Amino acid sequence: MAAIRNFFKKKKLDIKFKTAGAGHKLTDEQPTPQLSTHDSGASASRQVVPPTEAQKAAAEAALARLQAPAPAFAKGGSTAVQIRMRKELEAERKAHRAKEEEEKSALSGGPTVIDKEGPPMLSVSGIYYHCPLVGHDVLPRDEMEAKISEFLYAQSVEEPALSAALIIRTLNKNQQAVKTCVDTLCKYLDNIIQAPDEEKFQKIRTGNKAFQERVKCIEGSLRFLHGMGFSEQRLPFQDGEDDFLVISAEMAADSGRLVQMKEVLTNSEPIIPELDRGLQVFSPSANVTKFELPDTFYRFTIEKIKKEAIQRSQKKMQLRTKAMKERDKQRELRKYRFTLLRIRLPDEIIMQGVFHCFEKMAAVYAFVRENLVNDWQPFRLLTGDGKTFDEEAEPSLAELGLSPAAVLTFAWDAQVLQEVAAERGGLDKVEHLRPEILAKLQTL
User: Fold this and answer.
1) Which stretches does DSSP call E strand in 191-347?
2) CA 274, 276, 278: angle at the middle one, nearest 5?
3) What mean pLDDT, rounded, does the chain reach?
4) Selection from 429, 373, 370, 365 nearest residue 400 by Cα
5) Is the predicted pLDDT of residue 12 greater than 50, yes or no?
6) Is the dihedral angle over the CA atoms 362, 368, 374, 379 positive or is it negative?
7) How many CA atoms lie within 13 A of 216 on its CB side?
8) CA 326 from chain center: how many Å?
9) Would you call 156 helix, strand, or coil by DSSP?
10) pLDDT given at position 56
11) pLDDT at position 65, please?
12) Does pLDDT of 70 surpass 50?
């Protein structure tokens, strides 16, 4: 519906405007951009530490290399050159760290003891969500849902009917109860639209059992009725008085407004937090197949999964029917909630992203494509043994055997790659990831 589309369009523009920063004259110096206070994925837990003397020396050495004239083979700005430079910088840092440790050891009169039994570094720090409608924050699900709730209630003054309809759809978990409430509210609207002068349709007794069970129990329903024009009043009922919601004859006669409210109610959809991919980019590493996943990836506890693995090995010794095997298969698919995928590019750079287990390969292809320099260039995703996963594949990631973690290999379409390489001047000049994505490169 146009009203809902316009509402979302306006809010997205508001967010874009607010995040653009303070205004300035064209003659003023450009303000220094502020870094985000929150970054998703494993980097969320990292803290900024003042550089040591060794790190400063390494940085100065790197800066000197960057300012020196580039050799002929590096002028293309290829990924291979960037990787080599990063490796050299890392080697210098390690050398300086080793020297610092030797100095500390000499001063203390003994060797430095390094604890090698600490907890393993998680491949991803947790599961995070974002919602473009309410801003650019990346938060755990409960915090993002709270932010969406705050956003919807903040719209009540500007768009009371639409915000109430979205609250009904978004903030209530029982979808069957939501459907019952929406059907009942639509019935109220239809009665008034069809018979605006009928007095019995202009009031609702709030103590009525049907109203209590079908409408009042749903968050946002009373706000929607207030948006229709209903207000609380005490009216005579039987031998005394009772609480009613009453709409005035004037408000009831405005059928055009009521028709529009019904359209908003029936066409609105819940605002659902979107899973943040937690994009990370790693330099070539032999650790690409090593995963340490947080408990949130599993629907069951680790202990229960281990117990089931033992039971499964025992069942293999027993005769099992086809139906029993199918039940075991379905239970296996329900074990995991998320999957962590690493995509190895032709230059051995590794992309990492988080997905729901029920998502399909199309989501993985879209994730990869949006981070490529040439997003139009066809490519394939393969397993280690060369099996191609089709972009339009119907099975879920879990059904494809990619849960809870897997490594995929990226391959350009060979014919198109040759054409691009010829145009660029060689295969080593073909870039893969966008520069701003490659700038996030870290060690796995």
Assistant:
1) 203-205, 230-237, 240-247, 274-275, 280-282, 338-344
2) 175
3) 79
4) 365
5) yes
6) negative
7) 12
8) 32
9) coil
10) 58
11) 47
12) no
Mean pLDDT of 354-360: 95
**pLDDT for the residue numbered 40:** 43
**CB–CB of 271/130 below 8 Å?**
no
Give the mean model confidence (pLDDT) for residues 137-157.
93
Neighbours of 106 (CB within 10 A): 9
Best CA proximity match to 240, nearest among 204, 205, 211: 205
Nearest to 227 by CA among 260, 194, 183: 260
Residue 38 confidence class, pLDDT cut points 50, 70, 90 = very low
- Specify the residue for token string 């069957």: 176
CA separation for the pair 230, 219 (Å, rounded): 16
For residues 31 and 53, what is the distance between their CA atoms, to the nearest angstrom? 30
Quickly list H helices, 279-413.
302-315, 322-333, 361-369
d(CA 284, CA 305): 32
Tell me the CB-side half-sphere exposure of residue 6, using CA atoms within 13 A.
6
Question: Quick one: tokens of 380?
Answer: 């394939």
Q: What is the 3-state secondary structure (H, E, C) of 330-355?
A: HHHHCCECEEEEEEECCCCCEEEEEE
What residue has token string 């009917």? 161
Higher pLDDT: 177 or 297? It is 177
User: Can you tell me the mean pLDDT for 199-215?
Assistant: 94
pLDDT, residue 427, reads: 79
SS3 162: helix
